[in-house]
Amino acid sequence: MQYRRLGSSGLQLSALSFGAWVTFASQVGRSVARDLIATAWDNGINFFDNAEGYANGQAESMMGDVIADLRLPRDGYCVSSKVFFGSASDPRPTQKGLSRKHVTDACHGALQRLRVDYLDLYYCHRPDPDTPIEETVWAMDALVRQGKVLYWGTSEWSATQIREAHRIARHHHLHPPTMEQPQYNLLHRERVELEYAPLYAEFGLGTTTWSPLSSGLLTGKYNDGIPEQTRLGHEGHGWLKRMVLGDAEAQRLERVRRFTATAGRLGVAPAPLAIAWCLRNPHVSSVILGASHPEQLLQNLKAVELSDGLDDAAWQQVRAAVG
Ligand SMILES: NC(=O)c1ccc[n+]([C@@H]2O[C@H](COP(=O)([O-])OP(=O)(O)OC[C@H]3O[C@@H](n4cnc5c(N)ncnc54)[C@H](OP(=O)(O)O)[C@@H]3O)[C@@H](O)[C@H]2O)c1
């Protein structure tokens, strides 16, 4: 495994990390979740990502249970939560969003579910149009000062909103956001590569990126339809299918087919190739992986070697394939 600093902070995260979205307490039960965390840990992964909204908090409970069962040393791993969507199935106004109240309640809930005394990373899962950014910055700073959160950050905030959070923090001598959690993969590049470009030097912004395989699309498993026993084939995942395939479904699948053909010509599996491509961006602190089986995780971990193992001509072919 390779370790990278979270932006300009001193926290060293594994370049590949592991998250629980739509898998833990939903697609996979406790036994597979335990195997996944054990496989990740045994291969050097030290950051486990979660959120209050994943399976209404049950993903955090399952992760906390499994980590406790595996007796991972608390000083050896990092765990995160995210606040915004709420963990209640039909959240009331104070049970969601980024108000001081919900940011504080959600932190306490995550600490309990994950069975830890502090969260290493705590993210605002989306911007909240109904809460002034200033209120959220003060709430996050209070949690840091109370020792309940070590690093706070954002997820899918605009560069303008991140800049505003920094301005407020600087003005009041508060802890600014350390990291952002954006989507980043071969099919979704603009925000990380263009919109945030000035922020890396300006604020030492770290990034922990999500969906490196676009929910599995970049493995090529959906090239000829949607197989059962896959994320997009899972009952109740119609919303996810629409999100991943988008409006221009045929065009998107064509780009993926060209990518998987290129992987074939290079003699490598598409999944680690797509993940290795994310790792090649020096502004990525950690690529958060998802997996429903330990075998997938083992295959994806090969991305670390692959990111240094191909020449520039090969990477140019990859870029050309996705357009
Ligand atoms: N901040 C945010 O808003 C946000 C949003 C989404 C995710 N995230 C975080 O990012 C993490 C990773 O995102 P993601 O789960 O979408 O990652 P992803 O790598 O794009 O998709 C993971 C899924 O792809 C399939 N897969 C993975 N490796 C495979 C392989 N080698 N061969 C075949 N299929 C494979 C599996 O699904 P199946 O086997 O079920 O098909 C797996 O669950 C999440 O767990 C979460 O922690 C954050």
Automatic annotation (TrEMBL):
This is Voltage-dependent potassium channel beta subunit, animal. Belongs to the shaker potassium channel beta subunit family. Keywords: Ion channel, Ion transport, NADP, Oxidoreductase, Transport. Residues 16-320 form the NADP-dependent oxidoreductase domain. The keyword Secreted does not apply. The lineage of its organism: Bacteria, Pseudomonadati, Pseudomonadota, Gammaproteobacteria, Lysobacterales. The keyword Transport applies. CDD domains: AKR_AKR6C1_2 (cd19143). It comes from Lysobacter spongiicola DSM 21749.
